[in-house]
Amino acid sequence: MKHLVAPSLLSADFGKLQKEIEMVNQSQADWFHLDVMDGVFVPNISFGFPVIKYIKEHALKPLDVHLMITQPERYIKDFRKAGADILSIHYEATTHLHRSVYAIKEEGMQAGVVLNPHTPVDMLVDIIKDVDMVLLMSVNPGFGGQSFIENTYHKIAIMKEMILKAGSNTLIEIDGGVSTKNASKLVETGADVLVAGNAVFRSDDPMGTIGALKNL
Ligand code: DX5
Ligand code: ZN
User: Fold this and answer.
1) Domain total in the chain
2) Domain limits at 186?
3) What is the predicted pLDDT for the residue at 93?
4) Do 112 and 135 contact (CB within 8 A), yes or no?
């Protein structure tokens, strides 16, 4: 499978959100990546349901929603109603991960589990077959525009091995500090989905940068 590209709207210009959505629609991007932050799990607050609903009305591609909120299981139905297609929750934010993953699937969404940079991938060995996607954070979550953490390559390699050993189709998504400089190495190491915020929306040619991330 060719890797997927998911631009993160966190770095978009919200004053012209409709234009930014149309740009992603017309680009070679595969998904919209939406970062929801509660100011508790991470030291930042982003956006919630009304914004996601608005994006859903204009987006022609699936919404990949990354929840950086504590006890995300409280809001699974609401994110489905708002328009999420893929819903990812942090391993560090929910006590009953297995139950939460199945609650996401029961709502008809793909279930993703996110690991912070310090969380070993081994923590997922007993749930990997149940998960549609693993998101490995390559920065500490909370902000766009941070530097990529190099240890991520090591985590991707171990994760890939675990997935192959389990005979699972779980995708590996990488989020944080992704750019045209490290994208090839990430995909060669085993990444299936690349999220990019600043690299896309702060570039002179966002649509061209999405194309460059897709055609490595
Ligand atoms: C960070 C978010 C990311 C962020 C990535 O907490 O999860 O999705 O938007 O931004 P860049 O690509 O600029 O590091
Ligand atoms: Zn994200």
Assistant:
1) 1
2) 4-214
3) 98
4) yes
